[in-house]
Every structure is written in C-alpha cells, then in structure tokens.
Amino acid sequence: MSALLELQGAGISFGGLHAVDDLSFAVEKGHIVALIGPNGAGKTTVFNMITGVYRPTKGKVCFQGQEITGWQPHAIARAGIMRTFQTIRLFPAMSVFENVRAGGHLRAQQYWWQGMLSLPAQRREETALAERTHEILCKLDLDRFANEPATSLPYGVQRRVELARTLAAEPKLVILDEPAAGLNDAESSALNRTIFGIRDSGITVLLVEHDMNVVMNVTDHIVVINFGRKIAEGNAAAIRSNPQVIEAYLGRDENEAENVT
Amino acid sequence: MDAKLKPLSQSVSIKGDTLFSRRIGLKGARRIAGGLWVLGLFVPALFDNAWISIAAIFAIYGIVALSEDIILGRAGMFDMGHAGYFGIGAYVTAILNVTFGWPIFATIPFAILVSAGVGALLAAPLIRLRGDYLLVATIGFNAIFVLAMRNNLGGITGGSGGITDIGVPFLFGFQLASQSAMFWLDWVVLGIVLVLMRNLDASEFGRTLRYLKQDELASTTLGVDSRMVKTLAFAIGAGLAGLAGTLFAVQISTVSPSSFVFTESVTLFAIVIVGGQGSIPGVLLGTALMFILPQIFRDFAQYRYLIFGFAMIAVMVLRPQGLWPQRSVRA
Q1: Which end of chain A is more exposed for a tag (fewer CB within 10 A), N or C?
Q2: What ipTM, to 2 d.p.?
C-alpha cells in the first residue's frame, strides 16, 4: 500500500500566526484516518489546506504521488478529493435530489451548447445522472426525502445529504469535517456503519471528529495535533495510552477521558 | 423512452412549485407557453401597425432581459451594463450593413460573437469582484461604451447621431420590410431563445450557474471551475443580447448611443428582479410590464418610470422573490 495523500512539512500562517506548522502525515489508500485535537488546534485549517480553500505557505501536499500544493479547489476536486463541511453547506434553494445530483458535476461530460440544444447525448446523460443520483439516495436511505427542500430537514439528515453529495462525485479520498457533530447516539452509530461502507466501496476516508465513539471505533490511524503541530500519531490503542495526548486533549475533560478508557 | 423515464421524473419533481405550474404540471405549463407563442403569431392579423411594433419591441427586449437573467438571475452576478452588449450587437449589424453592405442575416453571427467576446473579455478580470463591486465595474463598462460611440470610435460609429438607414433583411428572396414581417422575425427568434433558455435550465451548465449563486465555496469543492463558468455565463448572456441588438437595429432602422445608456441597463436589471430571477415567465412578465403596459395607458406614459419605480419598491418589500419566481423548493 502506498500513501494516497501525504503532507510534508505543510504549514500556513495568517499574518504572524502559525495556524498550522510543519505538519507531516500520510493517509494510506483504503484506510480510515482521523485527525483529532483540542478546539482551535487547526484541524479545519488542515482540511482547507488539503482541499485548496487555503494555500499552504510552507511545505507540500501530495496526492497520488503528485504535488497539489496551491491548486485551485476545483482542480483538487477533479483530482479526486471531496469534502464535507463542519457547518453543513447544502444548496439552500434546492431539494435533496438536486443537492445530491450536484455531486455528479464532474461526472457530467456534456458541453454547455449540447445542453442548450438539448442534443440526444446530453439527454441520455441527464437520465443517467438522475438514475445514479437516485441510487445514491437509496444507498444512504435518503430516497424518501428526495423532493424535500434540503435545508428544511433535521440536522442529521442534512449531514447525510452532504455526504451523499460528495459520494455522488465518486472521489478517491473523502474528507469529513466533524461528521458526527450534532448527531444523537443512534445516528452516530449509524454513521460508523456508513463510514465503513464508504471505505469498503474503495474510498479512503480522512475525518476530523470530536466524537470518540466514532474516532476510536472506525479509524485505522489517528493523527493528533495541538496548536497547529502534530503531537502524536498511531492506532487507536496507541493514542489512547499516549501521555502527551492525554495531557493535551483527552485528559483535559473528565467525560471524554471516560469515553476512551 | 419517455415511459421508462416517467416514474423517475415524477419522483424527483419539486414540491413548492409556483401555484400555477403545481396545478397544471410542468408539461402543461410548457404547452400553455407554446400556445401563447402561437397566438402571438396572429398579432399582425388582429392589431394595427402601432401595436405590431410594440409587440416586436416586446420580443426584442424580452430576449435582452432573458439574456440578462442568465448572468443576474441564474449565476447571481450583478451585471448593470447589459445595455452595452445589446448596443454592441446593434452597432455591429449597423456598421457591417450600412458601411460594408453586408446583408442583415450575414451580420447576425458577428453581432453575437463580438458581443460574446467583449462579454468574456470584460468578465475575465471582473468576476473576482463580488456583488456591489461587480455592479459598479459593469456600470463603468456601459459608460465607456456609450462614450466611445458618441465620440465616433474609429470613425465608424457615427457619433451621437449614430448610424441611420439600416437595410431590411432578405429571406429566401423575400424582403422583410413590413411591420408584420419584422414582427414575425422577432417573434421567431424569441421563440428560439425561449427554447434555448428552457434547455439551459435542464442542463448541467444551467444548474452549475445556480450552484455558484447559492454557495460558491461548496460548488468549487465539488469541482466547479467558477472562473470559467462565470466567464462563459457572461459570454452567453452578452451573445444573446448581441443577437437582440441586430433585431433592434433592423426594427428601428437606426442605432444611436442613447438607446444603450446606463438607464437602459437599470431597466433590464429591474425587469429581472421585479419579474423573478431565473424565471422565464417572470422575466417576460417584467418585460411586458415595462414595455406593453405603458402603451395601454398611453395617457400616463410619461409616468412609466414613476409607476415602475413604485412597483419595484412594492415588489421588493412585499414579494422579494419577484412577481413570478422560478420554481424552486421553499424551506
């Protein structure tokens, strides 16, 4: 197995503040990797660096052996990295179906003029796109919400819609920013199964998560950062017993410490 | 194939359509629209010349307003210089026809291409601008265009008097000189543009414009190349406006800078906002309110902008989505 995604000494500073500094880690193909750390540790910033929302000021980001540092977000998406957002970003004036269909944007081959002329090839593609969207909705148990306005649904369902939208793009790597935030216990257990399902369909997963039920039970590998720097990495067992991690993160909160021991 | 598609398209039909299309269905709405267009063909048989030319002007401005709606209503970019593209198309036709003796129909591709090219060139550096900044920049473009035409750019635009005596189009040896013939030409082009717009809305490119409008960051992380898509939206919108410019030049057989000034852009902008952004019937309704209604109440014609101004205020306060909004889901 080779590293699908690799950060080499990557860092970004805003003004004088080093939000992320000298961060190196690798995500193996087919793994589920978690990036954890206390609030404000820079996890979302790392995601924004990988997906091109921010441009790293130091170091390199490589995907499938190719350097993608500083690429535009759409080019990185095209390379096969898709993401969800900590604050869900669904298209507000669209239905669940339309939102998930949007994920198929890169799979659509039609040119604008084919669309305006409604040529047969374009119409065939529209049909295929709609059918494929429907399949994904069924797979994630969202088909009964297909016609609902996306942003009117419960939080947990919206998270699933956003996930479905990224999966519709058939990415190689999916990056989930706190997928369990706002979910109840049942939903978060269901999320574990969903994440395994994504991995089993051949997609590598990188996630930021606070919910230790998710982090400790689904991940192959955990990277811990604090103040924008990596302080530990390893499997769940190793992280659980790492004194630095316990001090910086897990040991800080009685309840969270209980959850993981 | 249709039969196979049916269950799927039914299952994905959107709740919360406008009342009209919900009651009669999308297919029915299209049939009614098609019927209205066919009825329109009989305008020359039923009305006098004055009304025929009003209907022709409605068709021409309908096309311009629809093209503005691609940029403003669908892609969500504040284009307040759209009369400029309209003017470029009109001037291209006028110059090629009067100065170089080209037949009118031969000028159409160039009117479209030059307008689209200017739209794309202008858009490329401007699309990084957001909202109000883009709006001011496009006003600047419109001002430059009008000034250039007034100052007889390159000695070919005729100064503030413009270009007169634009020829009549010939089609298969027939001269389209009468009011009726010109109306039919405009009406057929409007019909074509309506079909193109409908297709656009059902295509990936049309949807991409809406993705960008609703959430640009989410769109780009789904692989939308926002720079390319926005530039293309500007080019297509400008190109269609250029096409309408040709029709305009033919209709009134003269082009002058005063037809394409900033206030015309404001009118187009207002038509889209008041009628309903991204809504084909909404934009046509807005165009009718702006260009047909004043003719019906001709005694009050001088109050056109006053009435439309109050209507704009009322619509924005009471119905910000426009008089006839696009069918969409409502949360």
Answers
A1: N
A2: 0.90
Among candidates A78, A82, A94 on the partner chain, residue whose Cβ is nearest the Cβ of B329: A94
The fold of the A1-80+171-261 domain, in CATH, is Rossmann fold (3.40.50)
Give the pTM: 0.89
Least Cα separation, residue B226 to chain A (angstroms): 8
> Residues of A with CB below 8 A from B196's CB?
116-117
Give contacts of B 13-32 with A, CB under 8 A.
13-16
DSSP B163: B
Give Cα B16 distance to the centre of its chain: 26
Q: Which residues contact B271 (CB under 8 A, 6 or more apart)?
A: B61, B65, B68, B283, B286, B287, B289, B290
Give the single-character DSSP code of A179: T
Interface touch A112/B16, C-beta < 8 Å: no
Cβ <8 Å between A127 and B5:
yes
Give the residue extent of every domain in chain A: 1-80+171-261, 94-169
**Residue owning tokens 């267009």:** B37
Residue-by-residue pLDDT tens, chain B, 331 positions: 333 333 333 334 444 344 444 555 677 778 888 899 999 999 999 999 999 999 999 999 999 999 999 999 999 999 999 999 999 999 999 999 999 999 999 999 999 999 999 999 998 888 888 888 999 999 999 999 999 999 988 889 999 999 999 999 988 888 888 889 999 999 999 999 999 999 999 999 999 999 999 999 999 999 999 999 999 999 999 999 999 999 999 999 999 999 999 999 999 999 999 999 999 999 999 999 888 887 777 777 777 778 778 888 898 899 888 888 887 544 3
Supply the DSSP string of A115-150, one letter for each residue: HHHT-HHHHHHHHHHHHHHHHHHHHTT-GGGTTSBG
Nearest-neighbour CA in chain A from B289: distance (Å): 27
Residue contacts between A and B (CB atoms, under 8 Å)? 132
